[in-house]
Amino acid sequence: MNKYCFLDDYSEGCHPRILAALGRTNLEQQTAYGNDDYSNQARALIREQLGKEGTPVYFLAGGTLTNLVIIASALRPHEAVIAAHSGHIALHETGAIEATGHKIITVPSADGKLTAAGIEAALASNALYPHMAKPRLVYVSNTTEAGTVYKKAELQVLSKTCRANNLLLMLDGARLGAALTAETNDLSLKEIAELVDVFWIGGTKSGALLGEAVVIPHEALAEDFEFHVKQRGALLAKGRVLGIQFVELFSAGLYFELAQLANAMARKLSNAILAAGHALAVPTESNQVFAILPNRKIEQLNERFDFYTWEKAGEHRSVVRLVTSWATDEHQVDAINRLF
Amino acid sequence: MNKYCFLDDYSEGCHPRILAALGRTNLEQQTAYGNDDYSNQARALIREQLGKEGTPVYFLAGGTLTNLVIIASALRPHEAVIAAHSGHIALHETGAIEATGHKIITVPSADGKLTAAGIEAALASNALYPHMAKPRLVYVSNTTEAGTVYKKAELQVLSKTCRANNLLLMLDGARLGAALTAETNDLSLKEIAELVDVFWIGGTKSGALLGEAVVIPHEALAEDFEFHVKQRGALLAKGRVLGIQFVELFSAGLYFELAQLANAMARKLSNAILAAGHALAVPTESNQVFAILPNRKIEQLNERFDFYTWEKAGEHRSVVRLVTSWATDEHQVDAINRLF
Amino acid sequence: MNKYCFLDDYSEGCHPRILAALGRTNLEQQTAYGNDDYSNQARALIREQLGKEGTPVYFLAGGTLTNLVIIASALRPHEAVIAAHSGHIALHETGAIEATGHKIITVPSADGKLTAAGIEAALASNALYPHMAKPRLVYVSNTTEAGTVYKKAELQVLSKTCRANNLLLMLDGARLGAALTAETNDLSLKEIAELVDVFWIGGTKSGALLGEAVVIPHEALAEDFEFHVKQRGALLAKGRVLGIQFVELFSAGLYFELAQLANAMARKLSNAILAAGHALAVPTESNQVFAILPNRKIEQLNERFDFYTWEKAGEHRSVVRLVTSWATDEHQVDAINRLF
Amino acid sequence: MNKYCFLDDYSEGCHPRILAALGRTNLEQQTAYGNDDYSNQARALIREQLGKEGTPVYFLAGGTLTNLVIIASALRPHEAVIAAHSGHIALHETGAIEATGHKIITVPSADGKLTAAGIEAALASNALYPHMAKPRLVYVSNTTEAGTVYKKAELQVLSKTCRANNLLLMLDGARLGAALTAETNDLSLKEIAELVDVFWIGGTKSGALLGEAVVIPHEALAEDFEFHVKQRGALLAKGRVLGIQFVELFSAGLYFELAQLANAMARKLSNAILAAGHALAVPTESNQVFAILPNRKIEQLNERFDFYTWEKAGEHRSVVRLVTSWATDEHQVDAINRLF
C-alpha cells in the first residue's frame, strides 16, 4: 500500500504489548484448545468487568465464525433471526447464517439500529403458523455498521421487547470498544451483560491480531457450547494465542484506551469535514466517519489516501467511509484534514 | 503444566523467527482478507516448491475449518466422502463434515492408511442408486493419525484409483512436514500436487501460531473458493498473520527443518522404548510414538510427564501416545528415556 | 366445515377421473420409486406438450418439497436465490430454502412479478466479493402469489437477463394451469420450457390429490437429480400414485380444462364484486380474487363463507382473498355474488 | 412387469377400503394441512390404541421424510444418532440425515437389532469432549431391515439404557404392522409408546397409497413439530389424503389384518424353502424372507419371479430376499414354492 489507508480498522498488526506477551510466553507449554492459563486469566479479567463470577466466556477467531457459532448453537432449525437490513450477518457474511440453516428476517433501519417497533413489525409479518420460520433471536451490533452507538435506554427497550416475546437478544461487539468509549455512550459491559443473552467482544478491530470473546450471560445457551465451537472449526489448537491477547487487552484498561484513540481520530476527521463545509451522512459517534463529499474532492483525496466510496448521494456527490483504529497515524489525519 | 508434556505438537507458541517477523512488520498497513503482500509472498514460496506457477493457494486458520471448507466447497449435497475409520474428519472433528451435509463412508484401516481395495469396497457397498449417497471425494491424511507415512507408490495407486472412478483425492497435511521429512518418505510437495486434487499444508503443528495453507492443483475446485472461505467464517480480516508465518516457514527451509527436529526427537524416544524391551503399537515413522507399556510403568512415567494413554492392550498393558514437536526439549526426551 | 369455503384451491379431493384410474390400476404390480409404467406414460405426455423428446421429468409430492429439491440440487453452498418479496419460497415455506443453506435475496414487487430491473438491482447490491452470497438462481412463480400472469414478453426479458448474467431461471408452477388458461396468457408450456432452466407443473392445486411434475429443460441440472429427490425424502415408494394422476391430467386436456373452470369461477366472482361497486386490490387474471371490501361486508360474508382476510386497506376496509378451484360449486359462487 | 414380483411390499396400490373412502369423501370440503376431520379422526383412533389421550400424532408422506423430520427436529447441531449399521437411515436414505447436519454412529449388528452393549460401546468410543459429536438419539426399526422383531424385554433394556444415558429412543415403524403381528411378537402399540420417545407407524408398506403416522409420547419433542414438518416439505396441502387412509387402517383392525396376511405369506414361503432343504440367512419372523439358494436355482426362479439377490454366500450360493405384502397373491406363492 503506497497510500495511507482509512479503509478499515484491521490494516495494521496488533498493539506492541500483545506482541511482547506472545514473545514472553512463547516457549511455555500450555494446555491446548482454550484450557491454557492465559485463556483462564482472560476469562477472569472479563468476568471482573461483568461483576459476576462464572459467566461463560469463550475465545474464537473471527467475527463471522463467532456469529455463526453463536446463532447455530442457539437456534432449532425452524427458528429465524431478526436483524437490521444493514446488520453484518445480513449483508456482509456471504450467507453464513443461512448456510447453517437459518433465515434472517431483515428490518429497515436508517441508522443501523433496531427498535422495538421494528422487532414487533417483524413478528407481526412472520406469524402465519406453521408456514413461516419462527422468529427467535434478535441480532444487534454495537457500534452498528453505521458507526452509531446504542444508548442504555434503547438497549433496555430492546431487552424488554425480546423478553416479552420469547426472543433471545444477541449483540455483535466487533466494535464494542468503540461503542463503550464513545462520547455518546452511557452503557457499561456489566449492563450489556444484564440486558442481552449473548454478546461478543471483538479483538480483531481493537488491537489484537485476531480473536473475539463470546460472553453468555444467559447460561442455558452455553450448554454444550464447546461442541459447536469445535464443530464449526472455531476451536484453535493453540488457544493461548487468543487468551494471551485478551489478557493484555483487559489488563490496565488497554482495550478501552485503544478504542478511545480510534474514536478520537475519527472525531478529528469528522470535525475537519464539517469545518470544511461538508455534511456527514450519519453523525460520527465512534471510529467510522460517513461523509458526503463532492466526487471531484473524492478523486483528489484518493490520490494520497485509500478509503471506501460507499454509495452515491445525488449526481455530483458520494458518501465515503473513513475508518480509524488504535494505530491510526495522527499526522496522516492532519494531512487528509487539510485537503477536505 | 507442571509436568513436561508429550501430549501433542501444539503445546508451545511458534518458532522465534515467526514472532520476529510479526514484530518487524507489525505497524505496516496491509490489505485485509488475504490480499496482503505477505500472503502473496507466501503463495509464491509455496508455488516454488510445486514447480508450477498459478496454483491456487489460500490461508486458513485451523485444521477442522480447513477440512470443512474444502469438502463443503467441492461436493454437491448428495455426494459423500470416503475416509479411513481413523481419519481425523471421521473421528475427531465433532461431525463437522456432516454438519455441512455430507456423509462420511469409513473404511477400516490398521495403520491409518487408505488403499485402493478399501476405496473399491466402499464404492461397491455404496452403489444402490439413488438410495445411497454417492461417493465423490477420498480423504487421506499424511502423516496419518497413526503417524504413518504414505510412500509414493501408495499415493500413486490411490490417485489412479480415484481418477478411474471419478473421485476427487484430498490430502489433509496437518502434519505434512513430519511426513515429508520422515526417513521412510519418498514424496515431494511437487509430486503430491501432481497426485491429489487438493491438499493442505499444516502450520499449527509445524511451528506456526496458527494457519494452514490450502493448495488446489485441480483448479476447477478453486472456482469461487474464497466465497466458501468467507461463508464458513475462515477468512481472517488480518490475513497478514497467516501470510507472514508461511513466508517464514517456507523461507530457508524452516518448515522442513522444524519437522525434522520433531521427527528426530520421536526417533530417539522410540529407540529408547525398543531398547528397554517394550514394543511399539505402530513402527515410528514421524513425530508420533505409539508404544505398548505396562500399566505400572505408565503410572510411573505419569508422575513426571504428560501424554495420552490411547487404549488398552490386554490386561496389564496399554498403548500410550507420545508426540514431539519442533520445540521438544531434548533434555526431557533424555529424562523420559531413562525411565522406560 | 359448515360454511362454503373459498380459502384455497386444495379443500377438495381430486378429479373423479383420477380416482377411477387409481381404482382401475390398483392391484397391478408396478415398479417402485417412479419407474412404473404410469410415471413413464405421464413423462411422455408432458414431453409431448414440450414438443421435445428426452426432457427430464420427475414427480414429487408437494410444492415446498419440490422447490427445495430443485434449489438445493442446483446450487453450490455460496450461491443465493433472487425472488420477489412475495415469492412463496420467501414468505410461506418456513425457511425451507435457508434450511438447505441458501440465502434468498428478495426484491420488492407490487404485483408479484420480478422484472429485469429488479434482478439487476439485486445483482448490484450483492456484488461485494467475497463478502456477499453470489446470486445464481432467479425464482419466479406463474401465476404469481398475487394471481397475476406473466406475459410472454416479460418472461423473455427475464430469460435474457438471466442468461446474460449467468443466472439460472426457475419457475414455480404450483398454479401453472391457472396461468396458461388465463385470458391474459400468451405463453405455452413449450415456450416456458425454452425460456427457463427448470420449472414445475403443480398437480395439488389443479385436480390431483397431490403431486408436482418437475421439468428440467436445462439438462445439466438433471445430473444426479434423483439422488436429491431421495435425499430430501421426496421419492415416493409408490411413485405410481403420482404417475397415474399426471397421466389423467395430461390426457384429453383435463389439466387445462380444470384450470379453466377455476379461472371462470374467479372471473364470475370478480365481475360481481366490481358490479357491486367494490374495487379489486389486483386485477383478476386467474383463480385468485383479491377484493377490497368494507369490514362490515366482510363480517356479513363470513357468516356463510370462509375466505382469508389478507390485510387492512385503510380503517374501514380490508383486502380479502377468494380462491376458486376446478371443484368450486357455481351455486355457491352465485350465492356469495348476491351478497357483495 | 411380466413376472410376479416379490421385490418389496409397495408394488401394488392400496387396500380397496381406502380407495372407497377416498371416493366417498372426495368432494367434501376439508381444512388443509392436516387439520381436516379425517386426520383428527385418525389421531383419535391411534390414541385409542395407545390408551392415552392427547399424545401428539402427525401424518407425513414417506419414510425417509419422516425419519429426517423427526431427527432434525429433535437434535441440536452437535448431536449424533446411534443406529445399527444396517439401519435404514444409515444405509438406504442417501445421506438424508447427514444432509440435515447430523452424524450417524453405526454399530455392527448381525440381525438388524441394537443392543444395550452396542449403545454403550458407541457411547464409549464417542466420548472425547468436545472433539466428537455427542450421541443423543438411538434409532431402531421394528421390524428391522433383516425382518427380525424386537421382543418386549429387548426394547425395555434399550429404553432403560437410553434413559440412563440421556439418549432419546426413536423407533422407525415402516413395517411396524408386520412386527406387531409376528408370531414372535409380545409388544403392543401401547407398550411401544411407553418405551420410546418417538416412533412412527408406516402406512406405505401396510396397505396405504402413502403416509406414515408419527407418534410422540415424549411430548416435549412435539414442541413446534409442525414447523419442521412444513420446513422440510412434508406438510401435504391435502392432508385429508393421509387422514382418510389412517382412519381406514385403524378402523376394524384393518392395519393388523393386512400385516398378518403379509406375514402368513412369508411364513408359507419360508416353510417351503426349508422343506426343500435350503437354509435361511435369518429366521423368518415377518414379511421378509432371506433365503440362501444355489445360484442356478436363483436363475431358474428368476425366469418367472422378480426378487432381490442380496449378497453372495460362498461361491455357488447367494442370499435372496423375498418380500410379501397384504396384496400378495397366494397362487403365486404356491407357484414359486413348487420351484424351490
Percent strand of chain A equals 15-25%
Q: In whole angstroms, how far apart are the ends of chain A?
A: 22 Å
What is the average per-residue confidence, as pLDDT of chain A, rounded to a whole number? 97
The share of residues in helices of chain A is 25-40%
Number of strands of chain A: 13
Sheet with most strands: strand arrangement of chain A: 2-8-7-6-5-3-4
How does this model look, in words?
4 copies of one chain form a homotetramer. With 340 residues, chain A is an alpha/beta fold. Chain A is 39% helix and 19% strand. Chain A contains 14 helices and 13 strands. Chain A has helices spanning 16-24, 37-50, 63-74, 88-91, 96-99, 116-124, 152-164, 176-180, 189-195, 225-231, 240-249, 254-275, 295-302, 330-337; strands at residues 4-5, 57-60, 79-84, 104-107, 134-141, 168-173, 198-202, 212-215, 279-282, 288-294, 305-306, 308-312, 317-323. Chain A has a 7-stranded mixed β-sheet, sandwiched between helices. In chain A, strands 9-10-13-12 form a 4-stranded antiparallel β-sheet. In chain A, helix 1 (16-24) crosses helix 11, helix 2 (37-50) packs parallel to helix 11 (240-249) and helix 12 (254-275) packs parallel to helix 14 (330-337). The longest helix of chain A has 22 residues, at 254-275. The model of chain A has no long low-confidence stretch (mean pLDDT 97). At the A-B interface, strand 1, helix 1, helix 3 and helix 10 of A face strand 1, helix 1, helix 3 and helix 10 of B.
